[in-house]
């Protein structure tokens, strides 16, 4: 129930619309009640089944007194205008009542629409905001497809079940309460019997739908796995075709799809059982009420035949809302399962946080220092990735990190903008622990160009300006020229307004990389991180990108991760990493003279 209240909290800000929805639902029920109550006594008077009432009765708030007063009004109409005219006027009045009933029904739904759409919008915005806040470590343990499923399928399920349930919980209880009050005025004894029967029926229906929440949770989890496979297939379609792995991927997808089919089949079967089961139980209740009430009439125990007929007519109007309410309980169990998956993401710990009294940092002044830094990912083995790292990087220096894959090079630079936090020791910029700084200002110090060009399915201009406020078109063009990207951009069909496709798929590898360099140039950061920025390029593209990087590095503190050692021979310091530790450090000439690990790496690349 906690998750249900959390979902309903999103409705709270729309309380004005909710009040109007309740008002028009009440009016809908009242007009429906009046239209039903009027028909039987009018027809009885019109066809002479009961005597006309000539004397005005005394009005009172009892069922019998109100019914007598209503019969008096109808009798007056028949007496004054004749049966046919009274029938015409009555038919017009019934039509007017039903018109207003349906008008109020529409208005109730009209004012429900902003509640439903707004609550879902707010929920989706909150989960997306949390996705942006969560650290990279969270996503190393989660499937991307499952996260996408939670912000799409699970939110949609919440909308279709819980948010829809709001309408039913407002409208149907009002129907039930008002009709029960009307029934109570006709016969308290028979109404008590009906109430007990409805409670028994509700308990039976509740037991049938008990397992829906668990099955729905499993179904949504498997849906996330399906989306993950589809995403991986689309991302790696070139490799799938190259290795003739179509059948392998098809079997993988079919296996999970078959599991989802089995769960959905069982879940839908159980859910579809609700309608016929509810209808059967409703008929059983009608039969029981018919017997109980009929026995009271036949044995003369205080219930008149006319009152009993009116009671059954009103009772028939009670069945549809009770049926809708019980059927909705099946859907809400599915919605609660989706809500649980959504709140698992929204309640996930944001480990990278900013202190309340965080220090401002607008510029980089002196040096970066790694002070006895240790780091381990919070995975199954807690293996140390970095161990006792001691390193200082002065302002304006070019420092290269080299070593075999898995040595900890990328982890070292990921710690600087706090993509992760150190497990041991500290990292200082200008003598202050980076955890003391304002997070946004700290990250503004860094420009990152990685091996994988991260681009978006948008225009060239928007990819370069990404995350940078108030940059002019002239500044974007100047950044592109520095990155050796202006020439190829100008040749595109729409120049800087050209859409580059998913992940920049319409561009070559070198062109994509030069766009990311242009983005870094426009940001103009004091500290530059280059993570294998040229390793995946051909010789011609590498030359263009290397020239662009040279322009970018000018006057900046630069940390370079490189496998191609020829690109970092002129670094101020080369740091050799091995198994999470610094094994050697020095310049190119000095490290070669040591005849150690660095010399072996250079010799291996010489062949």
Characterize the structure shown:
The protein has 607 residues and is an alpha/beta fold. The chain has two domains: 2-346, ABC transporter type 1, transmembrane domain (ABC transporter transmembrane region fold), CATH 1.20.1560.10; 367-605, P-loop containing nucleotide triphosphate hydrolases (Rossmann fold). It contains 21 helices and ten strands. The strands form two sheets. The protein has a six-stranded mixed sheet with strand order 6-7-8-3-9-10, sandwiched between helices. Strands 2-1-4-5 form a four-stranded antiparallel sheet, with helices on one face. The longest helix is centred in the first third of the chain and has 51 residues, at 83-133. The chain is elongated, with a radius of gyration of 37 Å. It starts with a helix and ends with a helix.
Tell me briefly what this model is.
62% of the residues lie in helices and 10% in strands. The protein is α/β, with parallel strands linked by helices. It has a six-stranded mixed beta sheet, with helices on both faces. It has a four-stranded antiparallel beta sheet with strand order 2-1-4-5, with helices on one face.
């Amino acid at each position: 129930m906690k998750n249900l209240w959390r979902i309903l909290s999103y409705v709270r800000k729309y309380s004005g619309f909710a009040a109007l929805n309740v008002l028009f639902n009440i009016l809908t029920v009242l007009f429906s009640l009046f239209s039903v109550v009027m028909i039987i006594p009018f027809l009885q008077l019109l066809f002479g089944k009961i005597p006309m009432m000539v004397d005005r009765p005394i009005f009172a708030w009892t069922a019998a007194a109100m019914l007598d007063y209503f019969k008096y009004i109808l009798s007056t109409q028949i007496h004054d205008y004749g049966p046919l005219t009274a029938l015409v006027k009555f038919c017009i009045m019934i039509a007017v009542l039903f018109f207003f009933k349906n008008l109020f029904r529409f208005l109730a739904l009209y004012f429900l629409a902003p509640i439903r759409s707004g609550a879902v919008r707010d929920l989706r915005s909150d989960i997306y905001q949390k996705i942006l806040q969560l650290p990279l470590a969270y996503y190393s343990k989660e499937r991307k497809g499952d996260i996408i499923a939670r912000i799409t399928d699970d939110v949609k399920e919440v909308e279709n079940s819980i948010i829809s349930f709001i309408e039913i919980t407002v409208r149907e209880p009002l129907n039930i309460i008002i009709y029960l009050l009307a029934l109570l005025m006709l016969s308290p004894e028979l109404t008590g019997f009906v109430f007990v029967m409805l409670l028994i029926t509700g308990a039976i229906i509740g037991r049938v739908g008990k397992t829906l929440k668990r099955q729905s949770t499993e179904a949504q989890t498997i849906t996330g796995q399906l989306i993950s496979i589809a995403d991986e297939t689309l991302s790696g379609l070139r490799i799938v075709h190259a290795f003739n792995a179509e059948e392998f991927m098809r079997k993988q997808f079919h296996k999970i799809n078959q599991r989802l089919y089995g769960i959905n089949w069982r879940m839908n079967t159980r859910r579809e059982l609700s309608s016929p089961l509810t209808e059967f139980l409703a008929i059983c209740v009608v039969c029981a009420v018919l017997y109980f009430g009929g026995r009271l009439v036949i044995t003369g125990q205080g219930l008149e035949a006319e009152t009993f007929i009116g009671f059954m007519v009103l009772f028939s109007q009670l069945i549809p809302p009770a049926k809708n309410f019980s059927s909705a309980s099946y859907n809400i169990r599915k919605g609660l399962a989706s809500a649980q998956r959504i709140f698992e993401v929204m309640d996930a710990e944001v480990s990278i946080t900013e202190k309340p009294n965080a220090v401002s940092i607008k510029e980089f002044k002196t040096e970066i220092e790694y002070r006895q830094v240790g780091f381990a990912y919070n995975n199954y083995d807690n293996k140390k990735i970095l161990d006792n790292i001691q390193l200082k990087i002065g302002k304006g220096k070019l420092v290269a990190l080299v070593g075999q894959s898995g040595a900890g090079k990328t982890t070292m630079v990921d710690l600087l903008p706090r993509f992760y936090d150190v497990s041991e020791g500290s990292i200082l910029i200008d003598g202050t622990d980076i955890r003391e700084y304002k997070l946004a200002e700290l990250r503004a110090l860094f420009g990152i160009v990685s091996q994988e060009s991260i681009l978006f399915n948008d225009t060239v201009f928007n990819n370069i300006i990404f995350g940078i406020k108030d940059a002019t078109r002239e500044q974007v063009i100047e950044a592109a020229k520095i990155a050796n990207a202006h020439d190829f951009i100008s040749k595109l069909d729409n120049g800087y307004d050209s859409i580059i496709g998913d992940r920049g798929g319409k561009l070559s590898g070198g062109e994509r990389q030069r766009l990311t360099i242009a983005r870094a140039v426009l940001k103009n950061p004091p500290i530059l991180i280059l993570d294998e920025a040229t390793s995946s390029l051909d010789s011609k593209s590498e030359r263009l990108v290397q020239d662009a990087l040279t322009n970018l590095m000018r006057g900046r503190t630069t940390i370079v991760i490189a496998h191609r050692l020829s690109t970092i021979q002129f670094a101020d310091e080369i740091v050799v990493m091995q198994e999470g530790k610094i094994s050697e450090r020095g310049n190119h000439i000095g490290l070669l003279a040591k005849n150690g690990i660095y010399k072996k790496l250079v010799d291996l690349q010489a062949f």
